[in-house]
Amino acid sequence: MTDEERTAVVFPGMGPSTFDDLGRFLVLDRYARSRVAEADEALGESLLAGFRAERDGLGIFSQVAFQVSSLALADRAEAELDLRPDLGAGPCFGQRALVAYAGALDAAAAIRLTVELARCEDEYFAAEPEELVTQCFVRVPDEPFAEAVAGYVDSGEWVEVSGRLDRGAYLVSLRAGLLDEMVETVRRLEGYTMQTLRPAVHARRFGPLRRRAEEVLSRYPIGKPALPLVADQDGRLVHTAEELRTMLLDTFDRALDWPATVAALHRHGVRTAYVTGPDLMFHRLDCTTSSFRVVPVTHKTVSKPGALRPAGVRAHS
């Protein structure tokens, strides 16, 4: 605990991100153009061409585009908002930008790591006998929802909570064939359905995938992060290269706990959080907005004149 008010940078998790969502930003934004050129060199081909050709918004080029956009938005926050974070966090896929921002890998290596890990996941899930997905649910009553999940598990189904986002907001992994039934269950509880992630993420079932990812990660010289990081699984502090390596691997088979991450940031004195990336959710969650002054630096806020302001600066009425 500290009496000093600190600032954190948060790289958000990734939802489906298409060229229609991010293409204009990547082409026109001066910070993004620099990062795109860097990505082209790391990939050995055009990021924008590959991104434009992808349709589902979750493929390899989509992942790199999201990572590049997040770093470009952090560049803008540093240059124009004087962002100088004391701590960092990166829920879910946000870790991929965080590891580069923290200086534990250079940007080109971080991009290549994203590509290799994406291919590793594709190969792993191609061998699964049926499609596994992760569904985001919000505004569900916590106890009845937990009882519903337990009922599926007791019946022999694989249903696993892969993330706690906020009160009444969860990521749930399950068979794709069960998804429609689960969605209907949540609707009966008066909850809402958001994006579906394919393939599934953050589940204990994926221990073998973690071991494959560990082989990939062993080929990269992960260094000590330049600032303390907060792990998104439980809010523990990450100071060393080995702790960072463990955090990157934990994302495969340990559930996200965003409220615990928020609580840890707050406990360590963070009162202002800059969320830098194409985020549609993390900067809006109640646990985030009730804990920090939130400065969303997204591809949408930077496109609106006067919308991007440092913490504590209000718009003129």
TrEMBL record:
This is [acyl-carrier-protein] S-malonyltransferase. SUPFAM superfamilies: FabD/lysophospholipase-like. One of its GO terms (biological process) is fatty acid biosynthetic process. One of its GO terms (molecular function) is [acyl-carrier-protein] S-malonyltransferase activity. Residues 136-196 form the Malonyl-CoA-[acyl-carrier-protein] transacylase small domain. GO terms for cellular component: cytosol. It comes from the Bacteria. It is an enzyme of class 2 (transferase). InterPro entries: Ac_transferase_dom_sf, Acyl_Trfase/lysoPLipase, Mal-CoA-ACP_Trans/PKS_FabD, VinK-like_small. Keywords: Acyltransferase, Transferase. It catalyses: holo-[ACP] + malonyl-CoA = malonyl-[ACP] + CoA. Its EC number is 2.3.1.39.
